[in-house]
Design goal:
By secondary structure, the chain is mainly alpha-helical. The protein is built from five helices and no strands. Helix 2 crosses helix 3 and helix 2 packs antiparallel against helix 4. The two termini are about 25 Å apart.
């Protein structure tokens, strides 16, 4: 993942005609799948906040197809799809709130 982040940042430096990402955080340079991998690899850092790594895997799996639609500049096809994203967001908030020990 560090190599990918480096490639993305170097490309932004080289291609001055494209505005760089607004954030310098490496998280903005990785893909959806990389984010899930990172959470699994550093599970001990995330577990105090999420409680169960399966929660992350399930949410990512449920939302991946919808994420792909949005990532390719399409509109979610139905109100149900939008509601699925909204409910998942609320689930994340509740999951984090319940495991907040910081």
């Amino acid at each position: 993942m560090l190599n990918k982040v480096e490639r993305v940042k170097n490309k932004e430096i080289k291609n001055k005609w494209v505005s760089p990402r607004r954030s310098s955080s490496p998280l903005y340079c990785i893909d959806w799948g990389n984010l899930a991998t990172l959470i699994r690899k550093k599970e001990e850092l995330f577990l105090p906040y999420i409680g169960d790594i399966n929660f992350v895997d399930n949410r990512f799996a449920q939302l991946e197809d919808l994420r792909n639609i949005v990532a390719y500049h399409e509109i979610l096809p139905s109100e149900n799809d939008f509601q699925r994203v909204f409910i998942s967001y609320r689930d994340w908030c509740r999951q984090i709130e319940q495991h907040k020990n910081w």
